[in-house]
Design brief:
heterodimer, A: mainly alpha, 8 helices, about 0% strand
Chain lengths: ~170, ~190
């Protein structure tokens, strides 16, 4: 499968290019890995808190009930109903969505259709409300006009495409 | 504050629902199990996350990120007309979009803010988002991403057969989502008063 080569090829290509330009790639990988650890340092405490709450929700079966409620609507647009809790939390909280996504992947199987759809949705959408409020707030934009409706429509298109892409690819 | 409300709502729903569904003991075990799982995940995610952050750092050192932002200047000129005559503004926009493309998380947000406030200034800084400001924020919220490292790391930690084989689907979904955002932006700027 050609896609299985994508990650090694990206790493190899970048390394080769950098080495040919005389860059210290070993030092670069190590410096970057430290960045990766800083990201983890930031997200693990959040994950502990959120996964505790989300696992409570799952084990109480409340998430299943919610998914069943959404099933007829989701069937229309081709998204597995099990993804419903993820779609609710996604625009508001990035770490919350990650925690919910991990939970769903663990429960339904990381390589199952549901697990893969969840991963693609996480990878292809953004924490819309958070991004809009941070960027606009910091830049001094108070009237956001049509930003939110357009961004949410874009997210919605992303969810439908994610589900379809997992079925086709 | 929003997160605190979310947390309380989730726990409240879990406790109340478990009383009705008779799943109290599972729910209670889930509380501790979830916390434990989060730390395990953190440890197993570390490998992929550190490796990809390393790739991005190597790309930066080799000037590939600069190259990417140069490549973006032309399409950006089409989306943001005022940048055609302003090289430094276009450079800021290109840096912001390419940081988003590479999923530079920490670096991407300040760059987006900088680009957004410069666009806002060029429109007179009235507090009302100009069409270009709207377009930039829509693009920023659209998550153009080439390497979704955190998700791939999560997949790796859950023993996926190939953590990165979701890449083509992610690229496709991202592209459709961004195209939809751009189209909506172009359409709504005509309709919105």
């Amino acid at each position: 499968m050609i896609w299985q080569l994508s990650a090694p090829l990206i790493i190899l290509g970048v390394s080769l290019y950098a080495v040919l330009r005389g860059e210290d790639i070993f030092g670069g990988f190590i410096e970057g890995a430290k960045d990766g650890l800083r990201v983890l340092y930031r997200i693990v405490p959040t994950l502990v808190t959120l996964l505790a709450a989300i696992t409570m929700l799952r084990e109480s079966r409340a998430l299943d009930a919610f998914a069943e409620l959404c099933r007829p609507l989701f069937a229309l647009i081709g998204i597995p109903a099990e993804c419903a809790p993820l779609l609710i939390i996604r625009p508001f909280s990035g770490s919350g969505a990650l925690a919910m996504g991990i939970e769903l992947m663990a429960e339904h199987g990381v390589d199952s259709q549901i697990g893969r759809t969840v991963a693609v949705m996480l990878g292809s959408t953004e924490t819309t409300f958070y991004a809009v409020s941070v960027i606009c707030g910091a830049a001094g934009v108070t009237k956001t006009r049509y930003i939110i409706p357009a961004a949410l429509t874009a997210d919605f298109a992303g969810y439908i495409t994610a589900a379809a892409a997992v079925r086709w690819l | 504050m929003a997160m605190s409300v979310l947390l309380v709502v989730m726990m409240l729903v879990a406790v109340i629902y478990s009383l009705f569904a008779g799943t109290v003991s599972e729910m209670s075990a889930g509380l501790l199990g979830g916390a434990e799982q989060a730390v395990k995940l953190g440890i197993t995610m570390a490998g992929v996350l550190c490796l990809w952050s390393g790739v991005v750092e190597v790309m930066r050192r080799a000037g590939l990120i600069k190259k990417l932002s140069d490549l973006l200047k032309f399409p950006l000129g089409a989306l943001f007309p005022e940048t055609r005559s302003d090289d430094s503004l276009r450079g800021d926009l290109a840096a912001s979009v390419s940081a988003n493309l590479l999923g530079l998380g920490n670096a991407a947000t300040p760059l987006s803010i900088r680009a957004c406030s410069r666009l806002h200034e060029s429109a007179g800084r009235t507090g009302v988002a100009s069409d270009s400001v709207c377009m930039l924020v829509i693009l920023g919220a659209g998550s153009l991403q080439i390497i979704p490292a955190t998700v791939a790391a999560a997949r790796a930690s859950l023993n996926a057969a190939n953590p990165f084989d979701i890449l083509p689907a992610v690229w496709f979904a991202t592209a459709v989502s961004c195209a939809t955002g751009i189209l909506c932006g172009l359409l709504l700027r005509k309709l919105w008063r």
